[in-house]
User: Which sequence fits this backbone?
């Protein structure tokens, strides 16, 4: 991370003008299951959503909300129930959540966004949720970020929060956020939920541009199991509480903001990959020497999605052949003879298929909790990274009994 960006606590409420909270309303058996994020003033809003053709009601409604007016004052989120594949009733329940939040907070319904996560194909216990929203709306605090981050979790094993402070035109500015995700993680927009806040001043169009740029290098570069979900979204609110003129694309201030946003989103994305269901290791696939960044990302994605690579890493098996095969079917044009592969800097394969594995050292490296698989294509100067995890027996156990 650049020295210009200082990590701070506070997650989604680290930026000025935001409060949040989370509580148990009865969707789940025991854990917090509803969260609200609120800005003290209307904020520019932007979002990116799953490209799955099967989408939850919240995705449909939020797309409409942002298309109608890209301004928001609050986001309400429930966990434990995806409200996906629930037809007209599901859409009506989503609007009921919006209306309950708008009424409880005293904001227009057009300024409330909504999100759901959990089991597909079940109706929301909407009466419990409405009661929970009314209660939670009176409990929102600047230090309520952790409760909110906990409330959006499903199979996650830990909360995911990040925030940084930096200077824009002499003004202290903050970007913070929270995310959830552990299973059904595959890149194509983002396969998880993420909520980002900032006190920077940006028009909605500029905010959307910044979000898409950062998303392409963060949430679109993680994978756990290759399954794209129905509810995935990343939403950002910019309320301008830091003051100053709007940050416009093409300016140094905009580039600084985009870099800060990417720092936060990459940090959250890596947390999701590390927390993959049943995972024991965070795996970074770093492709260098590509002709273009797009080709580097394409090759890295193929390796990151390979179940054979992920199971080999779980078993601490330095099976470079599986890696090279995945690059081969990625669809990029490259010369396999030139490829070099290493694990955490330990050479495994050199050009012209020179196998240089020290099996004992390789096993030690692959037993570490964080592993970088570096693949040098020797074709150019472009590079890209993907983040994934190992694939274990525990993943099968978790997903064989998810609904129970």
Assistant:
């Amino acid at each position: 991370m650049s020295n210009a960006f200082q990590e701070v606590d506070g997650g989604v409420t680290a930026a000025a003008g935001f409060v949040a909270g989370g509580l148990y309303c009865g969707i789940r058996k025991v854990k917090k299951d509803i969260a609200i994020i609120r800005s003290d003033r209307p904020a520019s809003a932007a979002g990116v959503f799953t490209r799955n053709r099967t989408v939850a009601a919240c995705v449909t409604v939020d797309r409409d909300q942002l298309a109608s007016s890209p301004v928001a004052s609050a986001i309400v989120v429930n966990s434990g129930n995806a409200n996906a594949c629930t037809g007209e009733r599901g859409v009506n329940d989503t609007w009921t959540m919006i209306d309950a939040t708008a009424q409880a907070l005293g904001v227009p319904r057009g300024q409330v966004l909504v999100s759901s996560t959990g089991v597909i194909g079940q109706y929301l216990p909407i009466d419990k949720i409405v009661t929970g929203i009314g209660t939670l709306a009176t409990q929102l605090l600047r230090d309520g970020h952790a409760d909110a981050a906990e409330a959006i979790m499903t199979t996650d094993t830990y909360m995911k929060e990040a925030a940084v402070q930096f200077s824009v035109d002499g003004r202290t500015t903050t970007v913070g956020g929270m995310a959830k995700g552990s299973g059904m993680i595959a890149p194509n927009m983002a396969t998880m939920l993420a909520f980002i806040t900032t006190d920077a001043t940006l028009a909605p169009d500029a905010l959307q541009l910044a979000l898409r740029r950062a998303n392409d290098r963060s949430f679109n570069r993680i994978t756990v199991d290759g399954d794209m979900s129905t509810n995935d979204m990343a939403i950002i609110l910019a309320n301008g509480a830091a003051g100053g003129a709007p940050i416009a694309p093409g300016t140094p201030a905009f580039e600084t903001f985009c870099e800060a946003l990417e720092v936060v989103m990459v940090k959250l994305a890596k947390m999701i990959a590390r927390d993959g269901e049943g995972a024991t290791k965070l795996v970074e696939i770093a492709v260098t020497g590509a002709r273009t960044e797009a080709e580097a990302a394409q090759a890295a994605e193929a390796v990151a999605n390979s179940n054979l690579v992920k199971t080999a890493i779980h078993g601490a098996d330095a099976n470079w052949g599986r890696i090279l095969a995945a690059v081969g079917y990625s669809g990029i044009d490259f010369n396999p003879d030139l490829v070099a592969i290493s694990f955490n800097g330990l050479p495994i394969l050199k050009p012209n298929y020179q196998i240089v594995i020290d099996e004992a050292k390789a096993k030690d490296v692959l037993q570490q909790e964080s592993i970088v698989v570096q693949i040098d294509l020797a074709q150019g100067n472009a590079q890209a990274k993907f983040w994934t995890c190992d694939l274990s027996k525990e993943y099968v156990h978790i997903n064989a009994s998810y609904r129970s």
In short: The radius of gyration is 22 Å. DSSP finds eleven helices and 15 strands in the chain. Residues 252-274 form the longest helix (23 residues). Residues 282-400 form a domain with the Ubiquitin-like (UB roll) fold (CATH 3.10.20.340).
